[in-house]
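Input protein
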Amino acid sequence: MVISYDKLWKHLIDKKINKTELKEQAGITYNILARLGKCQPVNLESLYKICKCLDCKIGDIMEFEIE
């Protein structure tokens, strides 16, 4: 099982927000952004902060891909 955050990056493009703005607005760290960029797991609290910042649901920013 692989985690994909492709939906998050598309969501940011649609809202015209860059990664640095997301970091500041959501209150997450550069480490979390790096993990997202590498499609690595992050904690639910960070995902919640991103969803709250973007006013979306978790399914709008990530998905699991079955290998």
About this structure: DSSP finds four helices and two strands in the chain. The chain has one domain: 2-65. The radius of gyration is 11 Å.
